[in-house]
Design brief:
The complex is a heterodimer of chains A (185) and B (180).
Chain A (H helix, E strand, L loop, with lengths): L9 E5 L3 H13 L3 E5 L2 H7 L23 E5 L7 H9 L9 E5 L4 H9 L4 E4 L4 H4 L2 H29 L20
Parallel strand pairs in A: 1-2, 1-3, 3-4, 4-5
Helix pairs in contact in A: 2-3
Chain B lengths: L10 H13 L3 H5 L2 H15 L5 H8 L8 H25 L5 H18 L2 H15 L3 H31 L2 H6 L4
Helix pairs in contact in B: 3-8, 5-6, 5-8, 6-7, 7-8
The chains are: A alpha/beta (185), B mainly alpha (180).
């Protein structure tokens, strides 16, 4: 699925402040992104198809998670689940870990920034976020996608070799747009 | 069109003529009116006097046909949030002993919002307040907070005036204003 160049990427924005949500949404839309804006980390996880409550019956199934998110941009300081907590949950999930995450904060605290970057965040934006910052998002999305494509290509070459050995099987992996661990056998 | 001047014409008659002649060539000439000049000067003052900074321009850049009232909407949201936060700080300051960490927390939110709309003076007063908080200086906090409230009130009034004037200068008004 090489629809990288022309596709409109979907960004999930997370911020507990209505004003900041309005701002980030406008910034993203002006920069040609499709946007979903939510007010909390737990809501973000719902959109991503990951239930925070692991005991609930709403376990993730591929059909459940129809909304593909290409990047998550989240505020750091939020009540309940902070942006850092959300980052760790995303990076700790096998289905979501390759989604690039950007963290925003109004405070320039080097230890905080480092912690986020070490936790897997692609970037740290200082608020107020500006239009020029939006240009830094696409490279992270594309980097992830090309990595995905590369791995997909490796997958299909592995499976097509297998097919030579086995006559009838059609590999479902070729159709799957996202990478998951169980496809590499 | 014959110009028939029987008696000393009032200024307004010439005014009408000028509008007629110049309307098509310089449609804005009539409309670069006192209203627009007032708006421009208001805005310039807001920046010159340090009430607003660059960030306000950023907001204006985000406004277009698809979101024609974006700036005013964001500013309205700001004052909704900020009024609530100011009230919270007021309340928190009356408590004894002082919870400086909580005060700092609320002020951090207020400062963040202020900086998002480019409210420069307010942002600076918020910073001062936080410095007093860090030193656990209650008197300093109280004095500083008075300044925060003052800047908040002044900015609110100025921006309300600005947007009110801006609304009067809308496209509908331009079409119907016929140089009277």
């Amino acid at each position: 699925m090489a629809v990288v160049a022309e596709a409109q990427f979907h960004v999930l924005a997370v911020d507990d402040s209505l004003m900041d949500r309005k701002l980030i949404e406008r910034l993203l839309k002006t920069s040609s992104f499709q946007v979903t804006a939510v007010d909390s980390g737990s809501r973000a996880l719902e959109v991503l198809g990951l239930s925070e409550d692991l005991t609930s019956s709403a376990a993730v199934s591929p059909a459940h998670n129809e909304i593909e998110v290409n990047l998550v941009i989240t505020d750091y300081c939020m009540p309940g689940m902070t942006g850092y907590d959300l980052l760790k949950k995303i990076k700790g999930s096998s289905s979501l870990k390759d989604i690039p995450v950007v963290i925003m904060s109004s405070e320039n605290v080097p230890s905080r920034i480092n912690r986020c970057l070490e936790g897997g965040a692609e970037e740290f934006f200082l608020k107020p976020v500006q239009l020029s910052d939006m240009k830094r998002l696409r490279p992270h999305i594309l980097k992830g996608k090309s990595k995905e494509q590369q791995l997909q290509q490796e997958e299909t070459s592995i499976t097509s070799n297998k097919r030579k050995a086995r006559d009838d099987e059609l590999s479902p992996e070729r159709r799957r747009p996202r990478l998951s661990n169980n496809s590499l056998i | 069109m014959a110009l028939h001047v029987s008696s000393a014409p009032p200024i307004s008659a010439f005014h009408h003529l000028l509008c007629f002649f110049f309307h098509d060539t310089y449609p804005e000439m009539e409309y670069a009116s006192s209203l627009q000049r007032q708006l421009a000067s208001m805005k310039k003052n807001l920046f010159d006097q340090g009430y607003l900074d660059e960030q306000f321009y950023q907001l204006e850049e985000l406004q277009d046909e698809s979101s024609p009232n974006f700036v005013e909407e964001v500013v309205t949201l700001f004052f909704r949030d900020s009024s609530r936060l100011v009230a919270n700080i007021d309340q928190a300051l009356q408590k004894y002993p002082q919870d400086f960490r909580r005060l700092d927390n609320i002020m951090h939110q207020l400062k963040g919002s202020a900086s998002s709309i480019g409210a420069a003076k307010m942002k600076n007063e918020c910073t001062s307040f936080r410095e007093f908080c860090n030193k656990e200086n209650r008197e300093g906090c109280l004095r500083s907070f008075q300044k925060v409230k003052k800047e908040h009130a002044v900015l609110k009034q100025k921006l309300e005036n600005y947007f009110q004037l801006l609304r009067q200068d809308g496209p509908v008004d331009k079409a119907t204003r016929s140089g009277n």
